[in-house]
């Protein structure tokens, strides 16, 4: 009996000891302070309220303003002997861009030569009739006919010369010169030396004035109800990631594009430094002023971890807290919070992820 009691007592003591080992102790986090060197790497911002501006993300492309685009089509047939420009070149109005050898030039030259010969004879005839009229031999009718014949030939010569001038015919070189119709940039080129061209060849090149461009935005069905004409937009491109181009939606289509099934919106932008080029892909944020105000902080201040949004609240160098927040609205630059922060509090908005990892020990 004593042995049984001793065994029971021993087992009870063992179970008590195991229970004491399994009881966890509260882990106290060591106090974290930032030094002056690290403090220079962060940015502290005071929280405030701002009017709510929602952002809707669209995509699109930069295009030339079609009202300032000239497609050049040849009115003559012939062979291209030389080309003096390349795609992307800037050209000025009247600049010789190419030369064309054509049998039609010979015809115009022959017309001018024949007309000049007829004019010479007509002038001599008029001189003779005028002399006879003065002597009373020729009638006034004969004089008027001679004058009329000369006038017709002069008009015909001007017409032939005008044709030569319109097509920039050069008798000395034996070619027609193709000149730039406007000042701008070559945005399309379909002409090369040795080509046989005709009026049916289509546009040989395109000159575009890029001082202002169009941004054509695609609006998908889910966003149609949120986008309207006159809406402010911010435009970003891959080529200039740090530059924001601002404008407004000037025209909103009322029918969907047949191929892409999206609604097209046009944004007209001034382009004085020619940074925006036709064909560029554009990321567009349409800004909608929803009315009212909310707590507003920079997008960069948010730390996303474990499927939650956090900010780092700064009280002093040794009191920095991690606080969960709830985002109600957002755009490219700012988020609007419905919970988590109050106006006047301070948060860290630069290198806050480094600080978050230090505090959490990650």
Provide a compact summary of the structure.
This protein has four domains: 36-52 and 293-360, conserved putative lor/sdh protein from methanococcus maripaludis s2 fold (Beta Barrel), CATH 2.40.420; 58-67 and 209-291, Elongation Factor Tu (Ef-tu), domain 3; 71-102 and 174-208, RNA polymerase II/Efflux pump adaptor protein, barrel-sandwich hybrid domain (OB fold (Dihydrolipoamide Acetyltransferase, E2P), Beta Barrel), CATH 2.40.50; 103-169, Helix Hairpins, CATH 1.10.287. It has 362 residues and is an alpha+beta fold.
Describe the protein.
The protein is of the alpha+beta class. The chain folds into four domains: 36-52 and 293-360, conserved putative lor/sdh protein from methanococcus maripaludis s2 fold (Beta Barrel), CATH 2.40.420.20; 58-67 and 209-291, Efflux pump adaptor protein, beta barrel domain (Elongation Factor Tu (Ef-tu), domain 3, Beta Barrel), CATH 2.40.30; 71-102 and 174-208, RNA polymerase II/Efflux pump adaptor protein, barrel-sandwich hybrid domain (OB fold (Dihydrolipoamide Acetyltransferase, E2P), Beta Barrel), CATH 2.40.50; 103-169, Helix Hairpins, CATH 1.10.287. The chain contains five helices and 22 strands. The chain has helices at 2-22, 36-39, 103-134, 140-166, 352-360, and strands at residues 43-46, 48-64, 69-72, 78-83, 90-91, 96-101, 169-170, 175-179, 184-189, 196-197, 205-208, 212-219, 232-237, 245-256, 263-270, 281-298, 303-305, 308-316, 319-324, 326-330, 334-339, 346-350. It has a six-stranded antiparallel β-barrel. Strands 1, 17, 18, 19 and 22 form a five-stranded antiparallel sheet that branches. It has a five-stranded antiparallel sheet with strand order 7-8-6-4-10. A hairpin with a 7-residue loop joins strand 13 (232-237) and strand 14. Helix 3 packs antiparallel against helix 4. The radius of gyration is 41 Å and the shape is rod-shaped.
């Amino acid at each position: 009996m004593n042995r049984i009691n001793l065994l029971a007592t021993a087992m009870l003591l063992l179970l008590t000891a195991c229970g004491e080992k399994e009881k966890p102790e509260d882990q106290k986090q060591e106090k974290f302070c930032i030094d002056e060197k690290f403090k220079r790497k962060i940015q502290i911002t005071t929280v405030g309220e701002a009017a709510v501006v929602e952002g809707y993300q669209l995509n699109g492309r930069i295009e030339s303003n079609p009202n300032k685009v000239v497609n050049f089509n040849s009115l003559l047939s012939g062979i291209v002997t030389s080309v003096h420009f390349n795609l992307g070149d800037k050209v000025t109005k009247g600049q010789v861009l190419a030369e064309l050898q054509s049998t039609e030039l010979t015809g115009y030259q022959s017309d001018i030569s024949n007309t000049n010969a007829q004019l010479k004879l007509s002038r001599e005839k008029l001189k003779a009739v005028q002399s006879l009229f003065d002597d009373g031999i020729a009638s006034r009718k004969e004089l008027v006919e001679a004058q009329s014949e000369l006038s017709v030939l002069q008009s015909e010569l001007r017409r032939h010369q005008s044709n030569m001038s319109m097509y920039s015919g050069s008798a000395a070189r034996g070619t027609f010169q193709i000149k730039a119709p406007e000042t701008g940039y070559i945005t399309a080129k379909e002409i090369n030396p040795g080509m046989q061209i005709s009026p049916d060849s289509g546009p040989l090149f395109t000159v575009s004035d890029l001082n202002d461009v169009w941004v054509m935005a695609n609006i998908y069905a889910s966003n149609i109800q949120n986008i309207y004409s006159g809406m402010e937009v911010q435009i970003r491109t891959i080529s200039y990631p740090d530059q924001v181009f601002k404008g407004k939606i000037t025209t909103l289509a009322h029918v969907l594009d047949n191929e892409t099934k999206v609604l097209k919106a046009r944004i007209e932008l001034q382009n004085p430094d020619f940074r925006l080029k036709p064909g560029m892909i554009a990321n567009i944020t349409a800004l909608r002023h929803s009315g009212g105000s909310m707590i507003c902080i920079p997008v960069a201040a948010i730390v996303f971890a474990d499927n939650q949004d956090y900010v780092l609240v700064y009280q002093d160098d040794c009191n920095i807290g991690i606080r969960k927040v709830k985002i109600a609205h957002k755009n490219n630059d700012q988020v609007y919070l419905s919970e988590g922060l109050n106006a006047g509090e301070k948060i860290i908005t630069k290198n806050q992820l480094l600080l978050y990892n230090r505090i959490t020990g990650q």
